[in-house]
Design goal:
It contains eight helices and ten strands. The protein has 260 residues and is α/β, with parallel strands linked by helices. The strands form two sheets. It has a seven-stranded parallel sheet with strand order 1-10-9-6-2-3-5, with helices on both faces. It binds 2-phosphoglycolic acid.
Length: 260
């Protein structure tokens, strides 16, 4: 794992935006795996700004989001379809026909999950997978004890995840219980992964992911198996790591190493 520790959230977001921009400029036809959540909002803002100011183009890219709530139609204000429109898609030149999210309102969510996995394969697989991490160590909605061999499927959300997401809904009761999420193995099949974590609330999960045992108890620890996983952290999210001195030696200030 490449562990990049930046001084603060803003620097971490700009560093992550650099990595996305480099991927898209290097391969304008990139297949992007996209994520939602509070952490990603400033990243999408930074990418939209680079589109406006520097001409960074997403016109040739294809995207697949990690997950969607079951039971929410794409026009539901709390759906991830709407999140992506508001946070990113409408601010850049990505072709709407090439953006994909799981169909949370499908009559048969199981079949929709299988179809989603097939679509990713048909697109040639994911070049760069963006990821956040839950306080419980989830990636996508792969909650603790999710199979490390899992593919896109239905997952039941933990109470802690529903509580974390309650702020977007009217009440806890209205916060969805189920989601379609790409699996841990789907994520591991991506050619590159970029996980971003900011803030002290993520510090424990980050330490478990990077330095803990490989375990379904912390699904993000599966990234230890990924040959090209980059973790971008601010100091607060890195605060429970034991080997910080080593990460700083390899990537001083979170910048490229001499061999990058
Ligand atoms: P957050 O969510 O960015 O809103 O903290 C991250 C996640 O749960 O993956």
């Amino acid at each position: 794992m490449k562990v990049l520790i930046l001084p603060d959230e803003q620097a971490a977001i700009q560093r992550a935006a650099d990595i996305v921009a480099r991927t898209v400029s290097g391969n304008p036809g990139s297949v992007l795996g996209l994520a939602t959540g509070g952490t990603m909002l400033p990243l999408y803002e930074a990418l939209a700004q680079r589109h406006r100011d520097d001409g960074l183009s997403f016109a040739g890219t294809t995207s697949f989001n990690l997950d969607e709530y079951i039971g929410l139609a794409p026009d539901h204000p709390c759906s991830y379809h709407q999140y992506m429109q508001k946070a990113f898609f409408r601010h850049v030149d990505i072709d709407p026909a090439r953006t994909h999210l799981p169909k949370g309102d499908a009559a048969d969510p199981r079949a929709a999950s299988e179809d989603y996995e097939t679509l990713i394969e048909q697109a040639g697989g994911i070049d760069l997978q963006l990821l956040g991490i839950g306080r419980n160590g989830h990636i996508g909605f792969n909650e603790p004890t999710a199979s490390l061999g899992s593919r896109t499927r239905i997952k039941t959300l933990t109470t802690s995840t529903r509580r974390a997401n309650q702020k977007y809904f009217e009440s806890f009761e209205e916060t969805p219980r189920y989601a379609i999420t790409t699996g841990v193995a789907t994520i591991l099949a991506s050619r590159k992964c970029l996980l971003i974590a900011t803030g002290a609330a993520k510090a424990r999960a980050v330490a478990d992911m990077i330095e803990g045992p490989l375990s379904a108890a912390c699904p993000a620890s599966a990234l230890q198996l990924h040959a090209r996983a980059t973790i971008v952290l601010d100091k607060a999210a890195a605060s429970e790591l034991a080997l910080t001195e080593y990460y700083e030696t390899v990537h001083p200030g979170g910048q490229d190493s001499v061999f990058d």
